[in-house]
């Protein structure tokens, strides 16, 4: 049974078909990258997969549990990091984790130990000591505290939307190390990103999405085939405008 | 540069919903017509001058309060321009100039033209003074309007500023309601005004207002005192210039939209422990703790809470000044009522942070979210309203009224509390996302919630009202207790059931806006809550810029 299964998810906004029968199967213990340009439908698909956006048709299953039929059961197994959403802005990072632990029904001491450790590893502990509110966090810090909330209840499947966006290189390494540890322990990760070079470097499976449709999906090597880089695969699948010899001739000195 | 901004402003304006625009337009046309009518029927030049002064003050007042009340004005935000390679002051000047685009300033000019007419009728030689006064008045009012609006926004970044904004809001709200109580006597007096003018003390006060100076200048010139005339008009010119300069400065974008560094620790944050003592473990305790902290620390929430308290306080004071004990006695109930409206868009207020409730949905978490919010509001508002009620009984010297005050408080606190969460769920309307907020009214539009509260609270309190009228105050107290508790419990239950059933839909309302949310509702029919939600969708405006 796959850890996460997107089954023909479809969503239309006004005229735009943001997701068009998106199907994807993420095996247990794998780390999958969902790549595609801005507006490809990554956020829309992942939102439908985790119960944030009701699909027009299709459904998603977490370890066999239907997200839209048994939301409570499915959400217990899921850890989610959405992209660019608000948080309870007037809490500190530590207070947010405390709130989240209680809401998830975790034991008080367990929550405290885990959140302290996570704040330390994600280098948010100094902000915490200063009483910095989330409203005052930078974009990268918001990603990090979001990741901490996603991990706090040790979910079996992690769904992260653009987790590396605006995160500095040092923190990005920490983030990768955390996720590697998590998959080594049997956890399953799916991340979205529009940076193909990054996904190629860290994940072991990829799915390419453009215009709301999944164009390719599978182990990295198989999807890439003979192409030197994932980017080339993408261009081969989608087609891209090249800058020709005569174009932009005025761009010279 | 200015031209570009003006075009942008009218482009953005065109995308706004036209409901309020219609209402505002009607008010403006009516106001201009009334101004002309009143000054035409005035019996003498002296009475006309007095009426013009009064109307000038009313126009200025409308310009000061209008944008804050109607939510809609000032679509262009200074922060849109932070990244452009323009001098900050250039942007400020440009934004100031855009304030003069539209029917508002145009109709104000029409109304103020009655000053020029007054000059012509009094003494043709003063016409130029009258024309200058007319133009200056429009510049002054429109600039002052933007100045106050921005000052309220800038205020949201400091605690003292928030406090001042709360006092202003409290005054506005109390004034609006006290206005209704005062409207009867005012109307009966109005007939005499055009005939005989105002009593002397009123004239003295009126003449001292800056908006009256151009008219006073015309009057002085008409009676031959040209020196005084130039002095008055010169002073008004200086004042207008100062207002314009201050406005241009305040309209220049600030470097950091997210708020200044904070030196003190946030309220409710203890060094040793991260937990609020006494809160139970589990989802309910989690929500109560988060909510209490948000009410303490978020300036926008604190504004709702504190302006409700100030509104009650001012109602009490107005009642005392006007010697109307029943108005004074309603201070506490009034605060509870205003707070019921202030808490009626909590999910819109929290913006897309609702994703935590969606993703963290457990067996009991949605109920805990609604009940926790109710408990937090009750903890915050009950002590203040009880104190206001007690003090109002003491100072009004009506001890016999105390059971009525107590019954009123119990029932409105309970019913209002339940109605707040229910409307928060059903009529959730997004504002600017919390971490991007700047202005005092950047939280969502609550028009539907306010009207629904005003209409629904009396019938929901009817058991208490009936018993109080038929059997007297002391009988009403226990009834009010049951009435209030039942209201809070039942309405809260409706709220959490609705939220649980429509959790992703409520999130979609906030995250994706009205157009996407609309599709999840039946087009017609459905239960009363569906109807209410449709009404909120079509009436409340999304302040939030949409897009992914
Ligand atoms: N609220 C909305 N209204 C209309 N169209 C939307 C909305 N949100 C997203 N879209 C459209 O859906 C498509 C997919 O968007 P999204 O899932 O956010 O892409 P990605 O995350 O891959 O950048 C885009 O074409 C976008 O314009
Ligand atoms: Mg996205």
UniProtKB/TrEMBL annotation, chain A:
One of its GO terms (biological process) is response to antibiotic. Keywords: Antibiotic resistance, ATP-binding, Nucleotide-binding, Transport. It is found in: Cell membrane. Signal peptide: none annotated. GO terms for molecular function: ATP binding; ATP hydrolysis activity. PROSITE patterns: ABC_TRANSPORTER_2 (PS50893). It is a peripheral membrane protein. Residues 4-236 form the ABC transporter domain. Pfam families: ABC_tran. One of its GO terms (cellular component) is plasma membrane. PANTHER family: ABC TRANSPORTER ATP-BINDING PROTEIN, DOXORUBICIN RESISTANCE ATP-BINDING PROTEIN DRRA. This is ATP-binding cassette domain-containing protein. It comes from Nocardiopsis alba. The lineage of its organism: Bacteria, Bacillati, Actinomycetota, Actinomycetes, Streptosporangiales.
